[in-house]
Amino acid sequence: MSETALDIAELLKQARTQMYEGRFDAALKIAVVVLQGEPENIDALYMKAVCERYSGHTDKALASVNQLKTLSPDFGRAYQEEGHIFRAKGDDESALAAYRRACQCNPVLQASWKAQADIFEGWGQRDAAAEMRGQEQRIAAMPKQLVGVSHLLHEGKLIKAENACRHFLQKNPRNVEGMRLLADIGVRLGILEDADFLLESAIEFEPDNIQVRIDYIQILRKRQKFSEALKQSELLYQRDTANPVFQSLYAIESMQTGDYEQALDLFEKVLQRLPSDPVTLTSRGHALKTFGRHDEAVLSYQTAVKSDPGYGDAYYGLANLKTYRFSDEELSLMEAQEQGNQLSYQNRIHICFALGKAYEDRKDYHTSFGYYQRGNELKRVQSRYDADQMTAELDNQITACTPALFEKQSGKGYDAPDPIFILGLPRAGSTLLEQILASHSQIDGTLELPNILSLAHRLRRQKQASNDSLYPENLHDLEADQLRAMGQDFIDSTRIHRQDAPYFIDKMPNNFRHIGLIKLILPNAKIIDARREPMACCFSGFKQLFAEGQEFTYGLNEIGRYYRDYVGLMDHWDKVLPGAVLRVQHEDVLDDLEGQVRRMLDYLGLPFEQACIDFHQTKRAVRTASSEQVRQPITKASVDLWRRYETHLQPLKDALGQEILEPQQ
What we know:
single chain, globular, about 5% strand, 34 helices, mainly alpha, about 65% helix, 5-stranded parallel β-sheet
């Protein structure tokens, strides 16, 4: 730690001491000094707001809190302080909304639960007050160390949280709440296997702990262990078939395993008990959209909006249909919500992207870009994406995956010919290619499978006995039986997503980073690189809000660099694995559908079928943002859409560079 950092830490310690002893003016002076050197210091800003409130300067305190929320949108104590300020101003309704937001961001803020209970009691709402009081008492009963871990966790201090939680578990190895918290930390750090193991163990210790089982289901879903997640959610459902939480969980897992009829039936049961629940209405909309029931999906999303005009996911569900057009009334409602101060951070992101789409459809491209840009900026605050780190990761593939590697490890994998990998960048036309090929009688479409990414993650963390090299360097050291087992595990673990066709598609775009690994464990796999003109591809990614992942899309510079690095790595695969990858240009598919269909089927060794040309008539679930578009005949409507925004896209052009752009111009 630098001398300056030590000085800041000491000043903050002094300010905290002064504040806890009630010397708010003295603490405020120290906080101001810290902020002169570090204007975005979260702890100093928080103390400044607290001291201003206690000193009676509520308007100044509110301004400090607003700055704090802008810098750290999920900082629960900022919303708690906002609640305290509103109560001091006599505005209990606004205070209650702030306390609710605080508890959403950080569920162990005991003072926020207590304040809600007090407000409800003052209003005579005893049942609501009792519920809040129960949460307050639950936190009071928790070990103080775990309350501290929870604060660190929900304030994004993950390494400190992990160290503190592990220290607690060393002394309390069977403490289920500690295991649950460590699993949550693992999820946020991307260490899903460890989180899976922790929660599985916790369930063995406390089989009736509902929260642990719910967390376990969510981990299984993230790891796309859908059959096991379905089994676990069914166990909860059978405990109490009338419980709407259990019904909803079982519905979501049914949807993940392709049983949309059961999912929709369960969502209806939830809505019989909670007819205006915006979360369930929106989830039902997602299911109906995936199942191809467009009009019903629209109605479900619209009902969610009527129920809660600030529920952003429902607006974005409508926008993400791509074919929906917002009315003047809906547009005004979204703008009023976005300009107000009652939206949660995530709802604001969803509404910004929805407004971007709404103005795009109205051909007001300047206003549209403003909302897309704002949505991306908000999203980027939450992201830990590092473009330099990604460049280094892809460069490592080039360095490690040499001709010597493939010569040494040739013929050692699992020889199944089943998989067809469609990869590249999101929004490059991969869903269209999947819909075309999945219309063939011998090919099953599945979804974006995480199996290759999970395997790469395991290899990255695994040290070899012979040396300390990590993935992808350790590909050189894998034995034939290891490579074969990895390939067979891929085939076995993805079988749940297949029907009965001999071939199946994995369309995880990020698999392009691991083509070397794919060809070592599955030497007979086919690989199609779905490529799109760079400006069109990158801008389409920029204006898409992804459910999760793809964090490189939330900035023009970031997505431009990523595209450039992708092209560089694909050029490398072409050199070291000549002929292994078929490149299909999106614009060529639009210009000559039949020619490109025949070209792909020739590469796959399959006979031509007319159904591939008539792909839009194929009835199947499609789980990506392009689901509505691929149910329509080929159109070139969006090919040059980016040009409407060109005056705003210079940072993207600069990031791509002339080497990428010139061949396209």
